[in-house]
């Protein structure tokens, strides 16, 4: 256990102790991939790397596999679940081409032994396994907490129906693999359409000059909310707002693309490396009042794709 994370110390310990596996949060993984010190060490002992604590991206999974020459995959869990619920490690016998394998290994994945996972609608019914319909992840198992200490109201809110309600919005495909779309509180509702900040962030992170990115909602008179991106550029790289905007528009629907891109030196984070989006909303977008409700849980008028595309052009 390291009291303080530094790339050089991680590399040194892997080489000295012949470490065969490690678990990281995305910001640590990104730091290791981009560290100029990596080439100085023998890292050939590493067999697999798990990334959790925050959503990963196929780009980061691919970069880690290339840098370490080993298997890399995402995982998912919460403090309330002790903590691991799922893994995206490939099951034995599953054969995918490299591109689809990387995408699969960046997903939230499937439940580990001893855990039951479902994705449900507001009525607690399972959503279709089509990889598109969104619902909330609920879990139960021996590792799930009994409740919050001396907080009965908060416990009742998340433990109703015998399942722990995670607050994470996700899809599930026919194989049972789950993909988190966003936290309920971070879904951007623009003109009645749900925009996943995680989806937009993954596109931004796919640009070779982007080191970190976070997407938040800002108020808009016409659409209610629109996405804004806060981006950190890799050292020694240059990038313009126009270039990054065009990169996004070539990969996702125009209405999902950030309407504003601001380049920053750093992003506020928790001790475990999660970006503090509440702080970003206050500093860059302003708190939106009243608190929004994701249209995962309600019906709203939908703006047409044509209208959204014209507005975003």
Task: Explain the layout of strands and helices.
Blueprint: H1 7-17, E1 21-24, H2 26-34, E2 48-51, H3 58-68, E3 71-77, E4 84-87, H4 98-105, E5 110-111, E6 115-120, E7 135-141, H5 152-159, E8 164-172, E9 178-183, E10 188-190, E11 193-195, H6 197-205, E12 210-220, E13 224-233, H7 241-249, E14 260-263, H8 277-285, H9 305-312
Parallel strand pairs: 1-2, 2-3, 13-14
Antiparallel strand pairs: 3-4, 4-5, 6-7, 7-8, 8-9, 10-11, 12-13
Helix pairs in contact: 2-3, 3-4
Detailed description of the structure:
The protein has helices at residues 7-17, 26-34, 58-68, 98-105, 152-159, 197-205, 241-249, 277-285, 305-312, and strands spanning 21-24, 48-51, 71-77, 84-87, 110-111, 115-120, 135-141, 164-172, 178-183, 188-190, 193-195, 210-220, 224-233, 260-263. It has 313 residues and is an alpha+beta fold. It folds into two domains: 7-183, Rossmann fold (3-Layer(aba) Sandwich); 187-312, ANL, C-terminal domain (GMP Synthetase, Chain A, domain 3), CATH 3.30.300.30. The strands form four sheets. A five-stranded mixed sheet has the order 1-2-3-4-5. The longest helix is centred in the N-terminal third of the chain and has 11 residues, at 7-17. The radius of gyration is 20 Å and the shape is globular.
Our Rg estimate from Cα atoms comes to 20 Å
Q: What is the averaged pLDDT score?
A: 91
Portion in strands: 25-35%
Low-confidence stretches: 287-313
Largest sheet: 5 strands, mixed
Helix amount: 25-40%
Number of strands: 14
Q: What structural class do the secondary elements suggest?
A: alpha+beta
CATH architecture of the largest domain: 3-Layer(aba) Sandwich
Strand order of the largest sheet: 1-2-3-4-5
Shape: globular
The oligomeric state is: single chain
Order of helices and strands: HEHEHEEHEEEHEEEEHEEHEHH
């Amino acid at each position: 256990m390291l009291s303080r994370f530094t790339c050089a110390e991680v590399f040194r310990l892997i080489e000295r102790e012949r470490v065969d596996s490690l678990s990281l949060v995305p910001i640590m993984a990104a730091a290791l991939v981009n560290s100029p010190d990596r080439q100085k060490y023998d890292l050939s002992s590493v067999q697999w790397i798990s990334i959790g604590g925050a959503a990963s991206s196929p780009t980061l999974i691919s970069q880690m596999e290339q840098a370490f020459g080993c298997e890399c995959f995402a995982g998912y869990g919460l403090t309330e679940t002790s903590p691991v619920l799922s893994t995206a490690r490939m099951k034995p016998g599953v054969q995918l081409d490299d591109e689809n394998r990387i995408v699969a290994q960046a997903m939230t994945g499937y439940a580990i032994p001893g855990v039951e996972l479902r994705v449900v609608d507001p009525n607690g019914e399972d959503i279709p396994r089509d990889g598109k319909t969104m619902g909330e992840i609920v879990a139960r198992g021996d590792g799930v907490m009994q409740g919050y200490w001396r907080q009965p109201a908060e416990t009742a809110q998340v433990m109703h129906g015998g399942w722990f309600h995670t607050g994470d919005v996700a899809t599930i495909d026919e194989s049972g693999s789950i993909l988190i779309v966003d936290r309920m509180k971070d879904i951007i509702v623009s003109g009645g359409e749900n925009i996943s900040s995680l989806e937009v962030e993954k596109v931004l992170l796919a640009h070779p000059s982007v080191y970190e990115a976070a997407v938040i909602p800002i108020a808009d008179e016409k659409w209610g909310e629109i996405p804004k991106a806060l981006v950190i550029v890799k050292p020694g790289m240059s990038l313009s707002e126009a270039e990054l905007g065009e990169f996004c528009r070539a990969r996702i629907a125009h209405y999902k693309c950030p309407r504003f891109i601001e380049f920053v030196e750093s992003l506020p984070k928790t001790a475990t490396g999660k970006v503090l989006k509440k702080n970003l909303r206050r500093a860059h977008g302003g708190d939106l009042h009243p608190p929004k409700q994701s249209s995962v849980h309600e019906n709203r008028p939908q703006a047409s794709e044509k209208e959204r595309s014209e507005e975003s052009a």
